[in-house]
Design brief:
Length: about 290
């Protein structure tokens, strides 16, 4: 058994790497954190080779890579290039959580699953086009329903944007019942929720998506808002709400979801050092959260 120190290498495309990602890594118990900001696709291969060619095969699992930062597409491109830089068994485990999108989506979906099953239900994802909202829809279309049917309304201010996201999710979940919905006004947003059993609001920080009155939607069992910056995404939900009842609806605010998100994030980092072959993206991160 290897007793080499656990090294996490944090790769971030932003000019200054995320302090949030660094602090969570340290709190997760890594022995050494190596932080690289401003990482480009041109540079990643050399950095990865430095990580895989320095330790023996037995010790490789004590090195892992984390891809974070605010630019989700750029971080995912780095992850993809990093994996292409491995040589067969000469690889290390990797985790991607740019902008917290994977852990937040996993925590939001798992929070809802404490109170309901998604199979044969109608689920609305407001602002389902951003990194968090798209992943919430992806998880419900996939592992959270385990193949059982659910109607998923993917909302956007622009129908074409919602359509594109539905197409992207269908690549992995071809049978999913994804419905692109234009929700460019408070009335259209309310209409997208009126038959829903669950609503997730994943809008940009400080953007209210749903005005008061949603509590009257008779099917609604769960309402989750991940926007913690006032005004929050669902009027009347408090950021601290955690399984808080409003009439017949169980509500979560951003901090109410955030505790589970942090627990999942730390647990995933610890698990990276179990072997040198893991890739933790949204579905694997969800599965880890589900195992608690
Ligand atoms: N609780 C936590 O632990 C946690 C962790 C990470 C992130 N978050 C929060 O999760 C939320 C989603 O994150 P994200 O990175 O996916 O967000 P994002 O990319 O900034 O925005 C998500 C969507 O919001 C919509 N939007 C943007 N500006 C808008 C405006 N002015 N009016 C109406 N809609 C607008 C856009 O959808 P359309 O253009 O398609 O309408 C966009 O795709 C954010 O509020 C973020 O702060 C919470």
């Amino acid at each position: 058994m290897s007793n080499k120190p656990k090294i996490l290498i944090q790769f971030d495309p932003d000019p200054q790497a995320s302090t949030f990602d660094s602090i969570v890594a340290i709190d997760s118990g890594v022995d050494h954190l190596l932080v690289h900001g401003g990482v480009t696709e041109a540079a990643i291969e050399g950095l990865v080779h430095g990580a895989i060619f320095t330790r023996s095969m037995d010790d490789l699992k004590r090195t892992a890579l984390f891809f974070g930062g605010s630019n989700v597409a750029a971080a995912e491109a780095l992850l993809s290039k990093a994996k292409a830089s491995f040589f067969g068994p000469m690889q290390v485990s990797v985790m991607a959580d740019p902008n917290g999108a994977n852990t937040t989506a996993a925590a939001a979906v798992l929070s809802a699953m404490n109170h309901m099953e998604f199979a044969n239900k109608e689920i609305t994802v407001l602002a389902g086009t951003g990194p968090v909202g798209m992943r919430i829809a992806q998880l419900i279309a996939g592992p959270a329903t385990n193949g059982a049917a659910a109607k998923i309304n993917v909302c956007s201010r622009k129908l074409t944007k919602a359509q594109q996201v539905c197409e992207q999710i269908r690549e992995a979940a071809p049978n999913a019942n994804l419905v692109p919905v234009e929700a460019s006004s408070p009335d259209l947003a309310a209409a997208s929720v009126c038959n829903a059993h669950a609503v997730f609001a994943a809008g940009a920080a400080g953007i209210e998506l749903l005005v008061d009155g949603w509590q009257n939607a008779s099917n609604l069992q769960v309402a989750i808002d991940v926007n913690g910056v006032p005004p929050v995404g669902i009027h009347g939900i408090n950021v601290m709400d955690k399984a808080q009842k409003q009439g017949h609806v169980t509500c979560y605010g951003a901090i109410g979801v955030g505790g589970l998100k942090m627990k999942i994030h730390k647990h995933c980092i610890q698990m990276l050092f179990d072997s040198n072959q893991q890739t933790l993206e949204v579905e694997e991160i969800f599965a880890i959260g589900q195992s608690f």
